[in-house]
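Co-fold these.
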Amino acid sequence: MTAMLSLSQDHHHHLADLSRELLAKRRLILASNRGPVEYYMAENGAGLQCRRGSGGVVTALSSASQHVEVTWVASAMGEGDRIAAESAQGESLRPPIAGQNLVLRFVVSPRNVYHKYYNVLCNPLLWFLQHYMWNSPYTPNVGAAAYDAWVNGYVPVNEAFARAIVEEAQRDEMAPFVMLHDYHLYLTAGYVRQHLPRAVLQHFIHIPWPAAAYWQLLPSFMRHAICENLCSNDIVGLQSQRDVHNFLHTCESFLEGAEVDYRRRTLWHRGHLTTVNAYPISIDVDGIQRLLRTPRVREHEEKLRRLIREITLMRVDRVEPSKNIVRGFRAFDMFLERYPQFRGRLAFLAFLVPSRTRIRQYRQYMAEVNQIVSVINAKYGDENWQPITTFMENNYPQAIAAMSLYDVLLVNPVIDGMNLVAKEGPVVNRRHGVLILSETVGAYEQLGEYAISVAPADLEGTAQAIYTAITMSKEERRQRAENLRRIVFQEDIITWLCRQFEDLLALA
Ligand code: G6P
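Predicted complex below.
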């Protein structure tokens, strides 16, 4: 423990030094579609409130803004954000989040433009493509709606982000460091580069980068624009070496004249050099531990303790088809069928955050999740025991409190860029809980050795993994849990940031 503490202090000092050096040179501007907070109108008449946004980007980047001063450019996503942006009258906001050194600037797009960008192009098309979620003989069908969403959604929102970044940058003499995030903003760097030729631009992609052949499902003008604009960055960051390779090969395949050096991981295109690196993202270990000690989290923990049984299984996910929630419950069903001795002795608590609910596939998936939960509860439950309890809300403190209590955490996505739940769990858990981890998530490269591995479609294997996890000896549980914890402590969000800052500084 002492070793871990001093490791964490070393990380902090190193980051503090790097940040000082970085910020002495240029301002840091972060841009992502989802901002660090979402504003909403409180039902009790308390007016406009804000809570933390959900998903991996926010989890990781919120910690960045605790350590360095950033200007964060994000979309006004919901009505609350729009009201907040309007009341700020074009000025930046300073969201009241403890310890955050953050200026927030919303990009407000007309509702129909935002709808085309987010609900037609980014999520049903790009997200599905990058997670290999198409059933290619039948889907996708890139028709007039998708073409329209590209021209009248994706392009204008990317341009609007670029304008906001350029305006922010013009407040300083020195061209800034700009860190762009994820699949929503693939075109932004190209537009920023036209106006700020001396800016240092980096784009980090949080989701998998599939093989070039899969990108061919998209019309060539779209994939060409995506690759070309990404190559306006000085650095493109991805989660794993496999993603890096796929990215280089995709650009080589679709950009005429691109010169790729696979060994150095660089790409020359139209006289510009882009370096492509893997930076496996992580979590803010210290921040999470502080959160765990807050009265709010402790209250949740007390409440949740009443629900746990002799054995507690858990999952924490956005309700997202790539997270494989339905198969996870099917495997649980098979487990209860096969090992009736555990009925009544365990609780499966599922913390599920509703996500992208305006998109048909997500609504359908939510309905399937609810359905299988009711079927399992009806099949095995009685007046004294329900096998599964779901919590359908975006409540991060509650999820963190819950994860301190699991015996088994099931993380079985079909495919995932990293999956930060797999890293949060071992850090907050107090019961030497076992991690069941899909081989197809980015986190598997670091944590796989100490988790129980499952192939995401393998129902038999997943049911067996649940059995193995709950019958594991205390000693083995302890050893695995301690190793998982050690690995996350060693490579936390600060390591992730430092590696990128070092590379940015080298360029500046
Ligand atoms: C993933 C993506 C993020 C996204 C998050 C939540 O982590 O990589 O870019 O913000 O999911 O999704 P949402 O659509 O709700 O922002």
